[in-house]
Every structure is written in C-alpha cells, then in structure tokens.
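Aim 2, interim progress: modelling of the nicotinamide-adenine-dinucleotide-bound target.
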Amino acid sequence: MSKRISLLGSTGSIGRQTLDVIDACGMEVAAITANSSVDVLEEQARRYGPELAVLMDEKAAADLKVRLADTSVKVLAGMDGLMEAAALPSADTVLTAVVGMVGLRPTMAAIREGKRIALANKETLVCGGELVMEEAHDFGAEILPVDSEHSAIFQCLQSGAHDEIEEILLTASGGPFRDLTAEQITDVTVDQALAHPNWSMGKKITIDSATMINKGLEIIEACWLFQVPIEKIHVLVQPDSVIHSMVQFQDGAVIAQMGTPDMKLPIQYAMFYPKRAFLGGERLKFEQLKSIHFAKPNPALRGIELASEAFRRGGSMTTVMNAANEYAVAKFLNREIFFTDIYRWIEYAMDHHSVIQNPSLEEILKTEQETYTLLEKDRNIIK
Ligand code: NAD
Ligand code: MG
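Predicted structure of the complex, ligand included:
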C-alpha cells in the first residue's frame, strides 16, 4: 500500500527534501503546511494535489484559498489548521519539519491519532519530551527521528539491546566557529554565522549550529528518544560529517553510521523503517577519504553547556532555554543583538525561572510566553 504523508513545513529545507523523496519513491501527499509562503505552497498544492493546504498566517491563507479555488484542495489557517493537517485521517505518516516549538501541539495531535511521526522538529522534544514520549507510548504512535545524528543512533541501536548501551557518541560538525576563541566569537557577523561548512539548512538551525545550541538541543532530543541518561551521551566533533553518530556497547564494540551528508537518507529511513529503500546519489569513497578527523567541542561556544544545564534542572527549564534561544536567534538574524548575546539572553531567562516539574502542555506553552515577555521587558537591562 502506498504511504500517505502529511508534511508539516513543506516549504522549508527538510520539507523540500521530503518532497524529493516522495517524488523518487512514489508516495502520496495528504497535507502540506507552511508559515506564510503563498507562492511556494500554491505551486506545491498544484503539483501534489493534497487534500489540505495550511498557512499559519491568516492573510496568506485567505490569499491561497482564492488562488486554489479551481482545485479540490481545502485551505485552512493558523494553529487549528496545522493541528488538522497533523491529525488528518487519510495520512498514515506525519513528517514534522516546522521550525521551533510551534511544532509541539501538532505533534501531540498526530500522536493522539496514533500516526507514525517522522520527527525533524527537535524543539518539540526539547520542550515537551516527557509528555510526548508518554503519550506516544499510550497511543501506540511511533516516533522515528529525522535529525541525521538521531537517525544514525537509531540505526546503530539495531545492533544491540537497550541495556547493552555503554555510551552514545553524538557527532557534530562544530559549525563555522569551531576553532575560534571566546574573544574572537564576540564580533562574528550574521553572514559568517550563516555560512555552515557542511550542511545547507534553514536559518534558525544554521545559527543554532554556529552557537552549538543545536548540539545541546540534540543531546536533550537523544535523552528522550532513546531513554538514556545525559551522562551516557558524549559529543564528538567530526568536522568532515562522514560519521553521523555512533553507539558503543558494553562489550566495547562501536557501531557507526556513515555516509555522505544527505538528509534524504534519514527522511526516507523514518518513512520506510524497518525497510530500506534505494536512494541515489554519491557514495562514500573511502580511498579518497584517507582520514577522518575528531576533536573536542569548543567550550567557547556555550550551547552544549547551557542546554545540558537546562536539562539537568529539568521540567519547564528546557522550554525556557529553547524559547529564549528562539527569541534571541530571531533578534540576532535581525542584527539587533550580537552573537554572544544569544548565550546571555538564554542564561538570563533561565536564571529568572522557577522550574515546574512534569509540566502539562498548557504549562509548557505558558512558560514559552512568559519567557518572551520577560526578554521583551528586560531587553535593555540584558544589553
Ligand atoms: P526551514 O526554516 O527551512 O523551514 C521551516 C518550515 O516551517 C517552513 O516550511 C516554514 O514555512 C515553516 N514554519 C516556520 N515558522 C512557522 C510557524 N510559526 N508556524 C508554522 N510553520 C512555520 O527549517 P528547516 O531547516 O527545514 O528545519 C525544520 C526543522 O527540522 C527544525 O526543527 C530543525 O531543527 C530540524 N532539522 C533540520 C535539518 C536540516 O538539514 N535543515 C536537519 C536536522 C533537523
Ligand atoms: Mg542534527
């Protein structure tokens, strides 16, 4: 039976690559969604003929509705629309590739319908990990990682049992500022931060990679997905991005997943698991590779430290860290704050929050809003 995919965030970097996989593998598209890109969503709706197309922005959605009046595509707006796309009865798999914790509610909606979730949107697990994993268990929804490292770890874990895991080696490219000192990173520019050496991705995750917040978010994502304590996760910088992550088992065996850096592999692996499908493209040529390099993460990039601290404090603190980061990254991209201010804003928000343990969905969303309000109110003090 052909798979039917509901694709949240279809106009983004992961969204478009998912459509490439869908083209190559002949799957059906049940729904597509985006923030406000009317032109691209119209084009995608005409090409893939989904049942539903959703734009978060109300005005853009009204425009799209007029444009698609000659088709049978239903058009909806806002969070209600996003939730409907996630819970669509005709879809069996929901690939969630929206950016930011806006993905939390639709992911929960998909879980409650027992869908297979192919999860690229890591912020969802960072903020709602406990809740999401519990509900996925209760509703029998499978969550399969799309993040390349987590897909790699998941593939490595096929080699042993959970209680045989000794440690998870989460690899990182190290980003563009891998070799800079604490002093040198104070005056890096937005353009320098956006120039990722190995991967072409959306802007937010590209900045997160430069600050190493991305790796911090990924540590938390791995703790929830694989149910391992944070002490068992070690970040290893592997600048060539040839090894996508590794797992060491208790007998000392280290299993690595390797390949050329191409997000289409984790995307299609999450869709077809436990099967593997053909994927064209370049293969690793080991004779040409000659060597693989490793390094420790650069401590001047404080993302791992701050995210790990938030996770250790637990409960709602990871939401504060994540929301402060989303807020600060938007300001940095807008050239309103410096690169290192991102860390200061996250620290400030974390220092002003009292943890709520086991937060409900409502408490997580409230914590997010409170974080934005605090940073908006105190932005001149923090500066
Ligand atoms: P992107 O910015 O390229 O695309 C984001 C998508 O989400 C777009 O379709 C956009 O329209 C939509 N969107 C943005 N804001 C929205 C909002 N407020 N409400 C609803 N929809 C909104 O991002 P991306 O690089 O594709 O990343 C998507 C997610 O996947 C992120 O969580 C990222 O961390 C994760 N991820 C990405 C990569 C990658 O290679 N790009 C790798 C691993 C994980
Ligand atoms: Mg990743």
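The mean pLDDT is 97. The two ends are 56 Å apart (CA to CA).
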